[in-house]
């Protein structure tokens, strides 16, 4: 057994070596032009990192060997190291080193963690790390296990910033599952939001079949999913069920989360006659299909007297199909007000399918919030409300009013795109009834005046306006 005195002497040896390297660099170095009053700063940080890395690679002065084994012991790695460096960086390693027998420290790691353990140790010496997408999870596991907080935070930040990066089989769903298991709420919420807001691309990726049943249900119950249509979601769910062959309860719960009322009757007829999955589980969703056909055949006002039309079956998601809204590309969005017009159908009900509503949308780049506006000048004239220093604003209003609007509440949703990792993704979603001024943080962090803003693509701001008609329950029918 190694004596405490021997450990101390070895640790001091490493410390002396590090200090010697630093003093040699300082003697040969140049003065860095950073002044604070009369004080100058001499910095050789990068060179010192290189020497520490060389110390690790050559094992000079090593006083401990890390023996990294996988559970089956079919892979063993021996890494010469320095106990002082390890103990300074990790309280867990410090305790293990204190209690070790001999000059070897046995560490048992999973296969994926063992594969990146040398990168982990290098970080302990150099404070930097190079990694690929598939290495992020095992490195995060090691950072958590050995309580290296700075590495854990750095990898979590790396993961949240690389959600949009291309990978052959996808990685976001896997990161979500890991975050859920590790209790990393920040990473979990970031992954879930990315999956929900960019669901159309996820459904077409190789990642979709591997999504867990738990994540599937979490997504299916959300109203903020961004996708082409509810029919697209059903088709993807059908592929998932065929590929994974889940138990009956999981399949039934997932099928009951589909919002069939958001599909036109012709689509429902097609599913009932052509979908093998729906044929297998028809009894489980028969009541939902019946309600959906009633929804399409009756007047929404009449329907609202007898049914709760605010339940999820009758609530639209963020559909990108033309009948629900329109894309809007605003070039040079910091200069002048811009406007556009588009049409949507009055509502998702088949009763309203032939009725159209024309919408006018106005984008103003510098609109002063209501709380900050001066009321009137001394002459009594209204002061201008569009001024320098204001914030962007979008207003969406119907071009005309109609008696058909009775019982319908129109929620407007603006999807804001951004360019990440070379891909266009949904970065933010804002809901309002008439103006984005109802959302106090609308584009607050976009910095549209900066050419490097991630919200600008070739100098343009890319939006997609979605209009979601919500029917209101008017009268509760008596039994």
Protein model, in words:
- By secondary structure, the chain is α+β, with helices and mostly antiparallel strands.
- The protein folds into three domains: 109 residues, Potassium Channel Kv1.1, Chain A; 143 residues, Serine Threonine Protein Phosphatase 5, Tetratricopeptide repeat (Alpha Horseshoe), CATH 1.25.40; 140 residues, Apoptosis, Tumor Necrosis Factor Receptor Associated Protein 2, Chain A.
- Strands 8, 12, 13, 14 and 15 form a five-stranded antiparallel β-sheet that branches. Strands 4-3-5 form a three-stranded mixed β-sheet. A three-stranded antiparallel β-sheet has the order 9-10-11, with no helix packed on it.
- β1 and β2 form a beta hairpin.
- The radius of gyration is 30 Å and the shape is flat.
- The relative contact order is 0.07.
Write out key terms for the chains shown:
disordered N terminus; three-stranded mixed beta sheet; alpha+beta; Serine Threonine Protein Phosphatase 5, Tetratricopeptide repeat; Apoptosis, Tumor Necrosis Factor Receptor Associated Protein 2, Chain A; Potassium Channel Kv1.1, Chain A; 479 residues; 3 domains; five-stranded antiparallel beta sheet
Topology (elements, then pairings):
Layout: H1 4-28, E1 32-36, E2 39-41, H2 45-58, E3 64-69, E4 76-81, H3 83-89, H4 91-98, E5 104-108, H5 111-115, H6 117-126, H7 136-145, H8 149-161, H9 172-182, H10 185-197, H11 199-203, H12 213-220, E6 226-227, H13 230-244, H14 248-256, H15 265-274, H16 276-280, H17 282-297, H18 300-304, E7 318-319, E8 325-331, E9 338-345, E10 356-367, E11 391-398, E12 408-420, E13 423-432, E14 456-457, E15 460-471
């Amino acid at each position: 057994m190694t004596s405490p005195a021997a450990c101390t002497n070895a640790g001091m040896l490493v410390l002396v070596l590090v200090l010697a390297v630093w003093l040699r660099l300082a003697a040969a170095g140049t003065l860095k032009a950073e002044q604070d009053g009369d004080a100058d700063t001499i910095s050789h940080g990068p060179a010192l990192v290189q020497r520490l890395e060389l110390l690790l690679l050559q094992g000079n002065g090593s006083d401990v060997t890390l023996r990294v084994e996988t559970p089956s012991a079919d892979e063993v790695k021996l890494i010469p190291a320095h106990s002082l460096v390890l103990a300074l960086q990790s309280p867990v390693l410090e305790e293990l080193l204190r209690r070790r027998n001999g000059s070897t420290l046995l560490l048992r790691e999973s296969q994926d963690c063992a594969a990146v353990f040398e990168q982990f140790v290098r970080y302990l010496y150099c404070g930097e790390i190079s990694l690929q997408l598939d290495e992020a999870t095992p490195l995060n596991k090691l950072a958590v296990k050995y309580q290296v907080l700075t590495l854990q935070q750095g990898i979590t930040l790396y993961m949240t910033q690389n959600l949009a990066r291309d990978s052959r089989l996808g990685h976001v769903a896997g990161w979500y599952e890991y975050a859920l298991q590790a209790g990393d709420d920040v990473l979990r919420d970031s992954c879930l939001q990315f999956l929900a807001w960019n669901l159309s691309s996820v459904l077409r990726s190789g990642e979709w079949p591997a999504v867990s049943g738990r994540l599937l249900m979490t997504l299916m119950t959300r109203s903020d999913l961004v996708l082409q249509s509810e029919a697209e979601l059903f088709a993807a769910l059908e592929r998932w069920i065929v590929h994974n062959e889940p138990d009956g309860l999981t399949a039934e719960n997932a099928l009951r989360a589909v919002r069939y009322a958001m599909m036109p009757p012709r689509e429902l007829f097609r599913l009932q006659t052509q979908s093998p999955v729906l044929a297998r589980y028809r009894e489980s969703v028969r009541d939902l299909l019946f309600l959906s056909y009633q929804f399409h055949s009756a007047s929404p006002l009449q329907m609202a007297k007898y049914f709760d039309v605010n339940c999820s079956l009758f609530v639209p998601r963020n559909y990108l199909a033309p009948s629900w809204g329109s894309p809007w590309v605003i070039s040079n969005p910091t200069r002048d007000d811009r406007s556009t017009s588009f049409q949507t159908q009055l509502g998702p009900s088949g009763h309203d399918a032939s009725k159209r509503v024309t919408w006018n949308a106005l984008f103003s780049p510098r609109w002063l919030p209501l709380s900050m506006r001066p009321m009137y000048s001394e002459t009594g004239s209204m002061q201008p409300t569009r001024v320098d220093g204001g914030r962007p604003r979008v207003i969406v209003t119907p071009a005309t009013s109609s008696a058909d609007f009775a019982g319908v509440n129109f929620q407007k949703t603006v999807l804001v795109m951004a360019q990440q990792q070379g891909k266009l993704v949904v970065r933010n979603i804002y809901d309002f009834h008439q103006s984005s001024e109802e959302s106090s943080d609308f584009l607050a962090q976009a910095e549209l005046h900066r050419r490097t803003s991630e919200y600008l693509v070739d100098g343009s701001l890319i939006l997609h306006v979605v209009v979601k008609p919500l029917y209101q329950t008017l009268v509760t029918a008596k039994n």
